[in-house]
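Quick one - first record:
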Amino acid sequence: MKILNENQKQGEITVKVENLNDLWSLYNIISKDDEASGRTYRRVVLKEGSKGERKPMFLKLKVEDVSFHEFSNRLRIKGKILEGPEDFVSFGTYHTLNIEPNQKITIIKEKWLRNELKRLKQDSIFKDNYIMLFIAMETGLATISIITNFSQRRIATIKKNIPGKRYEQSHRMQALTEFFNEVKKIIDVNFGESDINLIIICGPGNTRDQFIRYLKEKSNPPYFSKIKSIHASSGTESAILETLKSKEVSKIKKNVKILQEAEKIEEILTLFSVDADLIAIGLDEIAKVSNQGAVEELFLVDKFIRGTSKDHKLKIEEIITNVENSGGKIYFFNSEHSTGQRLIDLGSIIAILRYKL
């Protein structure tokens, strides 16, 4: 992200978005009641009864909602129009700014928090998105998910009744082939729509091996070299979480945010069972220990900050400042990932202490 202009007195910063990581950062920075302005298109009806035409213009909005659309490479900022060409817009009506890479946007806040400014100026370690397609598979059941640096979503669950081995072998093989074909169709569609880096097929028994042989023998698809086969306990969503913690997948963790988060979650859970006195949970408790310089690592979920009250944000800002000043490390977890959900279950904000208090 390139900062083009910064006026701290006015609370105004103009940036140029360079990539998807910048859009994700802005998604976590821009809040309700901020002001955002940029070039956009708006449909204008010049003649009664006509459909109108889309005209380029510069608009400023009072932000009401921000949404991140990873697979269309855009950030959507919705709000009421504060400024714009009077001939074409009515102030107070709604508009949505669609921000994409290489666009400029100006953000105005009543008060910029230190961690917001740092996030705005800090380069992400994830220069590019890393997209993984997971297929958890057992006989007659497949759960398919896409996991990226920004999200985790299940895209399909396929169920098929497969006759047992005591039935005629031809019937069983026909049912398996139909099952495999349905799974292949999902892979084909998503490989065509997304730049998938890795396809992981996990599950118990030999079903996944049969499926891989089926792919090679039937069509040898262009994505075959991207496939990795890993043992897991089932064909359900839990098998995907299990595989994310496996040693085979951990080898690529430097490229994938969720893998780094999964490793940290395991460290926290291990410490819970070994020495729980070195863990602090909750805003009030962590505020107290951070003030004493006792926090070695701080973990919090992004939506614990995003969209919350000003007082809540200021309290978190104070904690972050205390942790940074005492040399502690800070990790923001993605609530769109299963790891973020696990941190939410643990209280949304957790600290590992240097020493017992």
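second record:
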Amino acid sequence: MNKKYGFFLIVIFLLIISGCVTKKIYYNVYYVKPFDWYPKEKQDSTINFYSPYFKRIKIFLDPGHGGTDRKNKGPAGLAVEADLNLKVALYLRDYLQRAGAIVNMSRDRDTFISLDDRSRLSNEWGADIFISIHHNAPARPDDIYTNYTSTYYHATQKDYEYDHSSHDIARYVQRDLAYAMGNSGGLGSFDGTYSDYWIYPKAGFSVLRKTIGPRILIECAFHTSAYEEQRLIIDEFNQIQAWGIFKGLGRYLRQGIVILQLEKDSLNLRNEKFLSVIINDKNIGIDTTFYIAQIDSQNVEAKFLLNKNSKKILIPLRQDLSTGQHELKVVVRNINGNHSFPFRPKFYVVNPQNKTPIKK
């Protein structure tokens, strides 16, 4: 065998071998430590600053996937979405608890939790805010380039199911998380927040559809991005992700939350002309130029009654309302732009003119 022919065989052999080997691409990754997160003294100072706004707030964290649901991985097989979701959630839990929030989780280890149970656990616990944490993947399995940060809320503004306060929270969290990670919000949205109807029209994500109260779902980044995968497996970067979510929540809560309460849920049309809803805005102030009031999904007029001793919004009762159960929906907002938490109570109309006399 001549040398030229032998060299040719060696080259062919090496090409065959290299084609059978799974390649792992490593990048020189880059990220910035937030100025208010590092060093530890600045982190403590930031948490102390936001602490008054987190006191007694119940936050439910939902790390997506886990247990038998571990198929979502990065192109090099290094980043497993279920593990990333859990790591970010656990770091976020630490920041929130240090700030005085009350935190519960759908899972705190690698275990499977059904979609229905994730919502049920949050609802039964009485969470003030629900946050589901995920890492994204594109529609095409061979796409290893797409990467951005996005935050989802349920339904669209024209839908009855839409909740303004969830969209408020999504905006704050999206801004600070994307900033901390150095990512854009994608081209499908002006500010990186998306309706879940964009993914599943008229249905949305199960955990957002079935959960009561303000709720968001975060897609921190694309674990399928060859470059982003290299950052996501860095523990310090996971801490920075959690920090971005924490900061967004802190900024939101600092602008004040608004809680509504129905003064009476049973009304006699002969004696009462208004539904009275008590407004608790922590003395931030109410924007009287905006409100939404609906009875059985139909818009109705309303008026504010604001004084030093109480804050209310009054909804006139139509005298032709049928006897029985009805649903009220009210949305107001404070002067900082934060809308009231979801408020759709049932109320009962008793009209003595329509009641059958009781025989003695």
